[in-house]
Amino acid sequence: MLTLAWTYLRIGLIFFGGGYVLIPLLQHLLVEQYKWLSLREFLDGVAISQLTPGPLAMLATFTGVRVGGFMGGLVATICIFLPCVVLMLFVGRYYTRLKRIDLIGSTLDGVLPAVVGLVASAAWSLGSSLSSLRDGLILVAAFCLFRYTRVSPMLMILGAGLLGVLLP
User: Fold this and answer.
1) DSSP assignments along 87-145, one per residue
2) Phi and psi dihedrals of 151, rounded to 5?
3) Under a CB-based contact definition with an 8 Å cutoff, are residues 30 and 61 in contact?
4) Model-level pTM?
5) Contact 72, 4 (CB under 8 A)
6) What confidence score (pLDDT) does residue 18 get?
7) Which of 98-102, 142-146, 164-168 has the lowest mean pLDDT?
8) Chain-centre distance of CA 46, in angstroms?
9) How far are the Cα atoms of 51, 64, 107, 112, 167 from residue 58, in angstroms, in the given order?
10) Residue 77: CB atoms within 10 Å
11) Cα gap 163→161, rounded to integer Å
12) Crossing angle for the helix pair 39-49 and 55-98, nearest 10 degrees?
C-alpha cells in the first residue's frame, strides 16, 4: 500500500499538461516495473477511463482497486490528486503575483514543446498495441471525426466499442 501511495504521489507531482502526457510513464510503472496490470488491462483501463471526468486520474482508482481492493483505490485516488490540490491552494493564493514574473511565463513556454513530445510518445505507445486492419481503420476514422467534425468524443468511444463488438 505504501508503494501504491508513493507511486501516485510522484505521478500527481508531475501531472502537468493533462493526463495524456503521463501515458508512457504510467505504462512503464504500472505494467513494466510493478506489474500491477497487464498491457491489455492497462489499455482497457485507459479506454474505460475516457468515459469519466479526469480520465487518467480514474486509471489510478482502477489500478488501486486491482492492487489493494477498495482501500487501494481510495489511496491511489487521494495520492494522485493531493499534490495538485496543495499546489493549486498555494498558486491560487499568490496567482496575481506569480503571473507577473517573467521566469514563470518563460518556463511554461519551454514546457509546452516537451508536453507535445510526451503526448506524441503516448500516442505512439498506445498505437503500437493495434493488431489488425480493423483497429487501424477505427483509429483513422476516429482521428478524422475528431479533427474535422464536432462529433462528441463520447459518441466516438461508444461507436468504436460497438464496432469492436460487431466486427470481431
Assistant:
1) HHHHHHHHHHHHTT-HHHHHHHHHHHHHHHHHHHHHHHHHHTT--SHHHHHHHHHHHHH
2) -65, 135
3) no
4) 0.60
5) yes
6) 61
7) 98-102
8) 7
9) 10, 10, 29, 24, 28
10) 20
11) 5
12) 60
Query: Are the beta carbons of 8 and 36 closer than 8 angstroms?
Result: no
Q: Tell me how far apart the alpha carbons of residues 3 and 33 are, in angstroms, rounded to a whole number.
A: 12
Give the per-residue pLDDT at 50. Answer: 73
Residue type, 59: L
Residue 152, C-alpha cell as written in the block: 462528441
Residues, the chain: 168
Model confidence pLDDT, tens digit, residues 42-61? 888 887 777 776 767 788 89
Amino acid at 140: V
In this structure, what C-alpha cell is assigned to residue 102? 517573467
